[in-house]
Amino acid sequence: MSWGALFDWDGVVIDSSRHHEESWERLAREESRVLPPDHFKRGFGRKNEFIIPNILKWTDDPAEVERLSLRKEALYREVVKDWGLEPLPGVVPWLEALRDAGVPRAIASSTHRKNIDLSLGILGIGEFFTGIVTAENVSHGKPHPEVFQKAAESVGLPAEGCVVFEDAFVGIEAARASGAKVVAVATTNPIEALVDADAAVHRLDELTVERVETWFVERTGS
Description:
By secondary structure, the protein is of the alpha/beta class. The protein is 46% helix and 11% strand. It is built from 9 helices and 6 strands. Strands 3-2-1-4-5-6 form a 6-stranded parallel beta sheet. Helix 8 (169-178) links the parallel strand 4 (162-166) and strand 5. The model has no long low-confidence stretch (mean pLDDT 94).
């Protein structure tokens, strides 16, 4: 197959917004800190290392940022174990279609690897992904394109030869910067707001492999 599929995780493969929001709430209670009213929306798609000093404004100390970040993710995994987790509607049929067509698939996420591993274990969908790039693998968070560039490398393709599946504006910006095509999923934002993507869908199985393939036929002229 002449192209690859790169998946953001939260809000694209799984509906984890409630779990992440709850983990921030639990962390704030533990630390006796205040969360700004709009912190969760502003932090969508961002690494904790950006959120904690720039959005929450809790601390600029690197060691303290790391401590808070790791604790937040540990709390997130507790919430997942408490509440359970499901793939978003349409995700598994789309992954099956890509697998059957021989399209290489990778995860490209700002979340931590332990979160991904836990989720894959719960959902039983690890077989669908040949590459995984997470927060630990990149120096720059979205909107920098590094996560998508590295995910493309993991499937043996340039980013220009891949489609990114994203839900957050900052992720769409990062995908664009990498040179990839972008499909936006209307889980975090209304579909009419996703104008910067090549296509926008409510669920991934609205797509067909043949439709996406045409983008790369047009690109190569073959």
